[in-house]
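Re: that chain you flagged

S.,

Sorry for the slow reply, it's been a week of failed gels. I finally had a moment to sit down with the sequence you sent. For the record, here it is as I used it:
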Amino acid sequence: MDANHPANVAAQIARPRFSASADWIGLAAIFASAVVGYLLFPNNLALLTRVIGIVMLVLSVDLVTGFCGVATLGHAALFGAGAYAAGIAAAHFGITDPIAMIAAGAAGGAVAGLISGLVVLRGHGLGQLVLSIAIVNLFHEAANKVASWTGGSDGLTDIAPSPLFGVFAFDLWGRTAYVLGIALLVIVFFLLQRLSRSPFGMLCRGIRQDPIRVAAMGASVRKTLLKMYIISGMVAGVGGGLNAISTQVVGLDSLSFTLSAQALVMLVLGGTGSLYGAIIGTVVFMLFEDFVSAANPFHWLTIMGALLVGVVLFAPRGIFGTAAQLFDRRRRR
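Prediction finished late last night. Pasting the structure tokens below so you have them in one place:
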């Protein structure tokens, strides 16, 4: 094989950080956490399902920011596109099968990822941030203007998913949506782990480390990043589709800049460049936010801010990144 083949380029620049056995540990941890969550919050499964949907969004941010080094503050555009695609499929075209709605969400997210990638990848550094913010605002305004399709500021309603596999109905308790969310998360996590260790995934890590060297070796940096943006859009779209199925309504807040910024904060909290960090950061942020806002509704933002400042100052690699670093040090000793 040619030395300039992308697979060889990736092998020269980047290597996976964790062994394949960690994948099964991660899957086991997801299953265990799902069981614990069901036992601890049997009457609040809607919150846990919402957490799973946002985990998908943060994982998608990690793919382009943590793995590829592309700065973005507009990834809610991909999540919202998936949510609206699933909602429109159900409300306007009568496609109410949950699996089909998830597929529609993934397709909508992929298209949004393609559009966003073509625009954002034209810039560099701060320019990418500005372009990504412009993209999410444009998506938000477009959804608001076509109110006949999206419901505008009132939101898209009349979303009534049919029973999963024709048997398991989506009830007020949210059990079916929660189980569907866990299944989707396991599948997405497994596939992304395979992707991160593939030649394509290692090539993306190489681009993050030294894009000039990768280009000099013959790989197309722009095309590789665009492909990852599309994959990222699919992941975010799955999360958006799950959110549409779970809540049975899609609002403009799913396309907000605030959601994009929160997703980036969750990723930094857990640790960039690691799928585990994205999951841990999202779960910690959202559950802590829910608990603190209920316990102290007047000052919970101050408490959240203090938590984030403490993590950035004392655990700059995030919760998972710092824990992994400490574990590696102890193992070497």
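What I noticed first: The two ends are 40 Å apart (CA to CA).

Talk soon,
D.
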